[in-house]
Amino acid sequence: MEAKEFAKKFDHTLLKPDANEAQIRALCSEALDHSFYSVCVNSTWIPLCNSLLKNSEVLPICVVGFPIGANLTKSKVEETKFSIEVGAREIDMVQNVGYLKSGRAGVVEKDISSVVQAAGKVPVKVIIETSLLSDEEIALSSKICENAGAAFVKTSTGFGSRGASLNDIVIIQKNISSKMQIKASGGIRDLETALIYSNAGVQRIGSSATVQIIKDFIASQKG
Fold first, then answer.
1. Measured between alpha carbons, how far is 59 from 132 in angstroms, rounded to an integer?
2. Which DSSP category does 88 fall into?
3. Fewer CB near the terminus (10 Å): N or C of the chain?
4. How does pLDDT run across 61-71, given as a tens digit for each residue?
């Protein structure tokens, strides 16, 4: 795999609550320099990212209902609509874990499908937050995401007690069709870990350590 192909697997991410404008500008500059697939930011930064990434192949991606997911569906829908209006090209929404654990799978599916409908042609990834789920709940969540019309199942917000695990990926893969894709995120901070997930078949990787990962990948290719 060439460096550019590997770089396209990454959503270059900055979701910290204290992220400032200078850091967001640097994030976009790094994404352009290394040809990452996207930058993934909170909605307040989408207009700036859209401006900085204009006429490039790097997409601005917005999180919705982040990081807990316990928002009213209407608020997720409105955040989705507005974020797309100001430039978001993909939506990473957080599922309602509390409803899932209350046995309200139908409400969780409706929550996701409402965002999918609001997004229209813009792909929606659903962050299921695997650190809070049993294996059975990961399987159920994956099925719900597909039934609701999402494009991706995403493992983690990065704000949970742990990030992605290979076990999560295996369970998700067993419970979705080939139409669905997987984004591994949370705790992926070095090349070795990124390659593990890439080789496991995930289509996208979310990381805040993407620059170092791609630099190490390029160095390994030269070696």
1. 29
2. -
3. C
4. 999 999 999 99
Residues 130 and 155 sit within 8 Å (Cβ to Cβ): yes
For the chain, domain boundaries: 3-222
Please classify residue 155 by burial: count the beta carbons closer than 10 Å to its beta carbon, then call 0-12 exposed, 13-18 middle and 19+ buried.
Answer: buried
Catalytic residues: 92, 154, 183
CB atoms within 10 A of CB 79: 22
Pairing state between β 124-127 and 152-154: parallel
This prediction has a pTM of 0.97
Cβ neighbours, 10 Å, residue 21: 9
Q: E-assigned strands of the chain?
A: 10-13, 38-41, 59-64, 90-94, 124-127, 152-154, 181-185, 204-207
Separation CA 108–CA 196 (nearest Å): 30
- Rounded to the nearest angstrom, the gap between the alpha carbon of residue 9 and the centroid of all alpha carbons in its chain is 11
Looking at residue 180, its pLDDT comes to 98
Quick check: helix, strand or coil at residue 182? strand
Q: Is 10 helix (H, G, I), strand (E, B) or coil?
A: strand
The highest-level CATH class for domain 3-222 is alpha beta
Q: According to the model, what pLDDT value does residue 223 have?
A: 64
Residue 106 is encoded by which pair of tokens? 């139908």
